Amino acid sequence: MLNDSQSENIKAKILKTALLAGKIMMENGSEVYRVEDTMKRIAQNAGEMDVSCYVTATGIFIGLENQQRVMIASVEARTINLEKVVAVNEMSRQFADKKITLHELAEKLEQINQKVPTFPLWLEILAAGMISAGAMYLFGGVMSDFLITFLIGSLGFIISVVCKSLIKLNYFDLFIASFCIGIMSIVAVKYHFASQIDPIIIGSIMPFVPGVAITNAVRDILAGHLISGTARATEALIVAATICAGIATVFNWLGGWL
């Protein structure tokens, strides 16, 4: 039989573990309804059936009904890393199936939170180039521009990575990368390395387009999470506007040179 102190410690552990799971998912691109569902399932599988949680784009709240115990976590950095989301979901399922204990779940979530699963930089650059070249062709480009679009998309991605590491200012790396993509595209067409400028630019900026963020924003709004959905949609629009601003600046500066 647990005394009051032990019972309170267990309840605090349950809330803290569920809160950490929600924070990891929210910071890495999960939908709000999925975050709330995962947090509730963790608490309920741990024996606390009367749990309430509220998730927004910038903060997470969880508490036990009829008890003065609420925990809060701020969502500071938001990115898209679906590997972490999948990892949290997998740990939640294992806990539900009694394959791991609450303590083991908390430890594994800490490991997921600290570990940043990424692909090698060279592979990310290669993928960015392939996405750029493929999108260029889909948007009406010609195969003769495939290689130059691959190079421009890869270089644009490299510029974005370098800017992000040197300048800690949100969205600035996207502006610089799209600006450089615009310049390289104009130069390529001007000196006859490529034939069509529009498909090249469209394809090269595709690695930066916030497709997942826009999709999640729509899904959140349709699920009734208007605040989080609107916040995510606003952030996605800012990203899109930043990319457009970079391209527009180039055309305003060098458009007459073509």
UniProtKB/TrEMBL annotation:
UniProt keyword annotation of Cell membrane present: yes
Residue intervals of the Threonine/serine exporter-like N-terminal domain: 17-251
Example of a GO MF term: transmembrane transporter activity
Membrane spanning residue stretches: 121-140, 146-167, 174-194, 200-222, 234-254
UniProt xrefs under InterPro entries: ThrE-like_N, ThrE_Dicarb/AminoAcid_Exp
Membrane topology: Multi-pass membrane protein
UniProt-listed GO biological process terms: succinate transport
A Gene Ontology term for the protein's cellular component: plasma membrane
This protein's UniProt keywords: Cell membrane, Membrane, Transmembrane, Transmembrane helix
Family per record: Belongs to the ThrE exporter (TC 2.A.79) family.
Protein's recorded name: Threonine/serine exporter-like N-terminal domain-containing protein
